[in-house]
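Let us begin with a simple case.
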Amino acid sequence: MLSEMACEELPKEVCAFSVASSGKRCLLETEKAAEGGVEYQCRTSEVVVERMANYIETDQCVEACGVDRNSVGISSDAFFEPQFTAKLCSSQCYQNCSNIVDLFFNLAAGEGKISLQLTIL
């Protein structure tokens, strides 16, 4: 039997774009450290991923899709950068990295800010 994966137990280096055993997305957040600095913590979001659990995104997909594991939170602002949209819609990302594609397309749809028409490069 596979062990349960909780976001709070993941190191920050693999937190972003991971999905806990519960099916909820993991999210990198900042927290004030006792010494006054800033620490990064992996937290469980309320966003449930359909048909995916206990998953850590591959480095190949992170690179192919042009995302950064050190990003704190997730924002649709990246869609306004042509380079990001081109990488997200590239065949290397779109055809092989359904977790990342699902995350950003659901984010865009949920915020209602932008409407994307996919062009596979």
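The second case is a distinct protein. As before, the sequence precedes its structure tokens.
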Amino acid sequence: MENRSGENGETNRRLNLYACVSVMAASILSAIYGYEVGVMTGALLFIKEDLQISDLQLQFLVGIFHMCGLPASMAAGRISDYIGRRYTIILASIAFLSGSILTGYSPSYLILMIGNFISGIGAGFTLIVAPLYCAEISPPSHRGSLTSLTEFSINIGILLGYMSTFFFEKLRLNLGWRMMLAVPAAPSIALIFLMLKLGESPRWLIMQGRVGDAKKVLLLVFNTKQEAEQRLAEIKTAVGIEPNNTQEIVQVPKKTRHGGGALKELFCKPTPLVRRIMVAAVGLHVFMHLGGIGVILLYSPRIFEKTGITSKSKLLLCTIGMGVMKLVFSFISIFFMDGVGRRILLLISSGGVTVAILGLGICLTMVEKAVVNLFWAPWFTIVATYIYVGFMSIGIGPVTWIYSSEIFPITLRAQGLAVCVAVNRIVNMAMLTSFISIYKAITMGGCLFALAGVNVLAFWFYFTLPETKGRSLEDMEICVWESFKN
């Protein structure tokens, strides 16, 4: 008996191939989003020169991509409850396809804005549905690692975006940046066909009463029939279906099928547990962007320029190095997510980020006050920026998305995550559209000191969060409640 038990436990811990393939497919969407973010960092240099637009117009161009994420993310939560996670991924792919065609064509600033607007809708959908689908189709023992593939894929996309700007800049000015922006069309088409072949989230299927279809998917994503049936019973209980009910199609309330009343439960009449979950999940997204990751990624060329790096090729090489750091450290985080846990990674990440950005602030302040060039400043700035990006990518970046996609109850998960992403987009848009104006008013060093202060507050906040590693999604409410009571 002991041997069989040991073998069964070993089987349950083995990574399931179908779950892995499903998550990797959904992560392509995250890679497209990452590419859109990364490519704009370098493309802005050429767009400004070619279209002869001002810094204010550049800020609006960047801001509209993130501004669209606000209504799109709120819509995506409800849409994914109506049509399913899989078809919502397909909708996001169509938005990216349309947006990349328009921005790649863009004969004028107006068309460029429209294309970026449509791509922003795809981004809002992506930030909801990619981690949601991955969390709901992954087994508990590997959920952290598999769901973190969405953040890893974003970083792959960002790096590819940086590399794209470096290679396409060799083309003539009016063609190079348009080619950079048109690239996402190809993977968007491929993803549409791929998602038509893969399974739907078993949790969404049970919310629709399609228990038989959900069981088929669970048998694919778990290594043993026993574990699949156990998980099926737990999900049925969470949705309000009797575990002993053997019908393949079960009638469930319309409110459960379509997520009706979820926002009311989140905001108007939240239970103490839901209120605590909202504070934890939304707080993660607020501190991630207030900590400066968006402005560092997008405006890093301006930071490097302040220290004397003025060549476009050198600036783009510096951003490629930054993309490599993001990719390497987000890859490392995959192996620690289900071992070390979410909370410890957040604390390590927050501490490293604070030290790095404080050093960056000191360096930029010295540069701004110096009457001669400081020969060491460019190297110090590059190293400090890379350290900042590395620590952000090993903890705060991936954990924010994993945590907020797993902590909500099943009937509130899609729209709860939508609220988080809406807040994420608001804070990110506010940071990106105001950064140039703020640093011109209080200096670049002053901005970086303010970001360091925010990261100190974030460290305290992360310390208060409960650990969720290894718990099933259906067991998450008990985990959170016990932690907050203690």
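The radius of gyration is 23 Å. Residues 22 and 350 are 31 Å apart (CA to CA).
Keep these points in mind for the review questions at the end of the chapter.
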